[in-house]
Design goal:
With 391 residues, the chain is mainly alpha-helical. It folds into two domains: 28-266, Cytochrome Bc1 Complex, Chain C; 286-356, Helix Hairpins, CATH 1.10.287.980. It has helices at residues 3-12, 17-28, 42-61, 71-80, 85-112, 121-143, 148-161, 168-176, 183-215, 237-262, 287-293, 298-322, 334-356, 379-383; strands at residues 31-32, 235-236, 360-363, 366-370, 376-378. A three-stranded antiparallel sheet has the order 3-4-5. The N and C termini lie far apart (104 Å). The protein binds protoporphyrin IX containing FE (HEM). Residues 40, 42-44, 46-47, 50, 103, 106-107, 109-110, 115-116, 120, 123-124, 127-128, 130-131, 205, 208, 212, 217-218 line the site of protoporphyrin IX containing FE.
Length: 391
């Protein structure tokens, strides 16, 4: 008897394998709603990147040391001496950025197609929690190489926590594990990054996928008026949708490896708490909030700034319970779509301002210095010596 048959007989004698086989086969051959297409691949791409982050993260953990003395050196060792260490470190660093991008694209797809409406409100809410976890993954991982940029970006980032009403000072102390960013902060961020978030995200993704399968993919028909589709009109999950996801996944992985090779992430100088580098900026996904906070000054201003940054996130969480209209098609939801577009353009604009602030830029052939708040000041005018000073 072959090994396969022996294993099957062993399992059959102990479990109801026919029942489990039937359940799995039902899921694999499930028919998805007829309009399921290329725009429906971003969820799976996010999942693929989560798996890739977990695998490369485990490899990094084999050599990484979470102490101020050893963290930076261990990353140098991984990059310089460990077989393929440079590659999986780069894949992990670029994978984080790409995962946030795919999660955002998936979120935009489900928002504009009204997929968050009844009965999928909780699928959306678990999605928003997943989004929070994903950006917290980025924030906590950023500090781990213990380089200058990471150290100071975390110092600035945790400083904003101080402005939260009532609990600000306590929150900042809690995040840092003390008054300043030290080895205690590194330990905390490490535990959050490699234990708390991976398990939390795994649980949330499991619930999210379960809910998605339970309700199937939404159609563009109004809530409560969805007509059941004939099985032969549905898109077979396997092989049709899986093939689409497979194609895009291969392209994504190729893109990821290309980025890793062509544009490697620097390890940077080791953290120096006594030397503040100029122009510390956070990662691109925090740039909109970072820029927005700059427009609010003084005690009350800072409080308003925190409120202004939190409102979009709170709105995201409760959005399915605010938008109770029946329509799903974007053309029939002008208010929700306009709202979403304004939010998207504002985030892109603020992010761009944050990116170019405190730099010199050329627009239409003229040089400008972009101030902290993003106002352009013509460099020629700024540098011109006042006429009264000319002798
Ligand atoms: C790691 C992150 C995530 C993974 C792995 C994931 C996975 C998936 C998958 C595989 C689907 C099936 C259809 C599709 O891909 O479009 C789906 C559906 C859905 N997801 Fe996500 N998702 C993630 C994050 C999010 C986020 C951040 C949101 C929104 C805040 C969200 C909201 C939804 C909704 C509402 C659906 C139902 C779509 C429909 O029925 O048309 N997901 N998710």
């Amino acid at each position: 008897m072959g090994l396969g048959k022996a294993v099957k007989r062993f399992l059959d004698a102990r479990f109801d394998t026919a029942l489990y086989g039937e359940l799995i086969s039902k899921q694999i051959h499930k028919r998805l709603t007829p309009h399921t297409g290329w725009l429906h691949v971003f969820g799976s791409l996010s999942l693929l990147l989560f798996v890739s982050q977990t695998l490369t993260g485990i490899l990094l953990l084999m050599y990484y040391r979470p102490t101020p003395e050893e963290a930076h050196k261990s990353i140098q060792y991984i990059t310089g001496s460990v077989h393929f260490g440079w590659l999986y470190r780069q894949i992990h660093a670029w994978g984080a950025t790409l995962m946030i991008a795919t999660v955002l694209l998936h979120m935009l797809r489900t928002f504009f197609m009204g997929s968050y409406k009844k009965p999928r409100e909780l699928t959306w809410v678990t999605g928003v929690l997943i989004f929070f976890c994903t950006i917290t993954f980025g924030f906590s991982g950023y500090l781990l190489p213990w380089n200058q940029v990471a150290f100071w970006a975390t110092t600035v980032g945790t400083e904003s926590a101080n402005k939260v009403p009532f609990i600000g000072p306590w929150l900042q102390y809690f995040l840092r594990g003390g008054d300043a960013v030290t080895g205690e902060t590194l330990s905390r961020f490490f535990v959050v990054h490699v234990i708390i978030l991976p398990w939390l995200l795994t649980g949330l993704i499991a619930v999210h996928l379960f809910l998605m399968r339970l309700h199937n993919i939404s159609t563009l028909e109004p809530v409560g008026e969805e007509k059941p589709f004939k099985p032969e009109h549905g898109i077979p999950f396997f092989p049709v949708h899986v093939a689409k996801e497979g194609c895009i996944s291969i392209l994504l992985l190729a893109f990821l490896v290309t980025l890793a090779v062509v544009s490697p992430w620097e390890i940077g100088e080791p953290a120096n708490p006594l030397l503040t580098p100029p122009h510390i900026k956070p990662e691109w996904y925090f740039l909109p909030s970072y820029q927005l906070l700059k427009y609010f000054e003084g005690t009350y201003g800072a409080l308003l700034g925190i409120i202004a940054c939190s409102v979009p996130f709170v709105l995201l969480c409760v959005w399915p319970f605010l938008d109770r209209g029946k329509e799903r098609h974007p053309k029939k939801r002008p208010i929700a779509v306009t709202f979403g577009l304004i939010g998207l353009v504002a985030a892109l604009f603020l992010g761009y301002l944050g990116h170019i602030s405190e730099t010199d830029q050329t627009f239409f052939g003229k040089r400008y210095h972009i101030s902290l708040k993003g106002w352009p000041e013509a460099i020629d005018d700024r540098d011109k010596v006042p006429s009264s000073d000319v002798h």
